[in-house]
């Protein structure tokens, strides 16, 4: 049974099930009709009409199903007919295939027979061609053999010729050897003559030396010794005189004078220093004032920080608040504003703006007055007003705890003393030293090194090129080329490096000391390291067996050089290497 037959049977079964269902529905409707109420009832009549309509629909559906079944039967009959035709075609195809197979077998037998005949013919041709190839190979081998025999004959002739030439070369070598023997004999005779002549010259030289010694009354060794001693004594005397003059001149004109100038400048200048900080403390009359400063929901403190640009820190510290800002001028304006507000008692956003304007004007006046006082103290009269304003802002600027404006005054005094001692242009050098840190007034606003910023400001406001160069070169951003630049560097170092001038944080101080000891302890032969005088001096104890005197000097120089390259510090650091040798004996 084919797949089509199976599908057809399934369709017929489904249609039968539908017909059975329709019949069951009709029977149920008839039963309802049999049990219906009286014919005169309108509901009954309506229900009857509806059921009749349903029966009519069911009959029409049954008719359609029957027609569908008839169509399916006819389709099944057609399919059976097609299947029968397909079977007949298959039988005819099998018969045709058997016939084709028989023909193919006959054709294959014929082709095989022809192939056998063709193979025999090809084999015969191959045998004939092989015979011909063999004959050609034999001819070629014969020709090759003849050529090889001729080559052997030629090689034999060449060997004979080479042997003849070798014999001639041997004869020439024998003749050359005889000539060399004769030349060697002649050279031996000449060597003997030269030896005899050298002996005669030696005797003559000895006679001449003896004659000279007799005439001079001294032997050659004595004369050489006296000459060397005279030259050595004279050279030592001249060298000693030269060294003494150089040392005396250097000591008198360099070390003593420089030390005198520096010490005198440091001793003649002294100033009080303020601690570097970014926080100001304002004392309050009572803790209840903190609530008024904060305001309702923090309104007052937000307005204060927005207007002044200063952070206001209110913690558990009794009767005190902190003001934090990196700009010292702005921090001072904020502190003065808050102080006035506390004294007035009226604290609200509008009042904060009014008091801030008054405090800013007051701080500007204080800065201007401080700058004028500094200029009067230094002795500088003509300067651009903008530079005066910037100098006044340095009144609240500190560097390592040292007030920058006081540092400028101090540096100018030191530079003036040095210039006077060296007989140089005192006003120009004092001006260069006084303005060398002017760029620190704008370090919170302009990016870059304060030396370069200060040089640009000085050039912008009409300062001379010598002053501009001294400002930009005082931290070696630009190599110093003038005496003003060198003295500005020296006076800046004297002011910042003198004892008590600057302070640094405890953490930075401890790290610097630890790094200094690490640098020295990392060298070979070092036993102990001691950092002394707040890191201004380091003493290195070395093992005497591992480090000699020359090695100690080299070690001190290496440690000092590494400290210069790696660390930043004010002033200078002295490196002392101690090499101690002890010998102990016991008397019994």
UniProtKB/TrEMBL annotation:
Is Membrane given among the entry's keywords?
A: yes
Task: List keywords of the entry alphabetically.
Answer: Cell membrane, Coiled coil, Endonuclease, Hydrolase, Membrane, Nuclease, RNA-binding, Transmembrane, Transmembrane helix
- The HD domain, residue ranges: 404-497
Task: Look up keyword Coiled coil and say if it applies.
Answer: yes
Q: Which SMART domains match?
A: HDc, KH
Residues annotated as transmembrane:
6-27
Q: Which Pfam families would you find in this protein's record?
A: HD, KH_1, RNase_Y_N
Give the bilayer topology: Single-pass membrane protein
Q: Which residue spans adopt a coiled-coil conformation according to this UniProt entry?
A: 48-114
Q: Where in the cell is it found?
A: Cell membrane
Q: What is its EC number?
A: 3.1.-.-
Report the PROSITE patterns cross-referenced here.
HD, KH_TYPE_1
Q: Which family does it belong to?
A: Belongs to the RNase Y family.
- Database matches in PANTHER family: RIBONUCLEASE Y
Role description:
Endoribonuclease that initiates mRNA decay.
**How is this protein named in the record?**
Ribonuclease Y
Q: Which organism is it from?
A: Micromonospora humida
Query: Encoded by which gene?
Result: rny
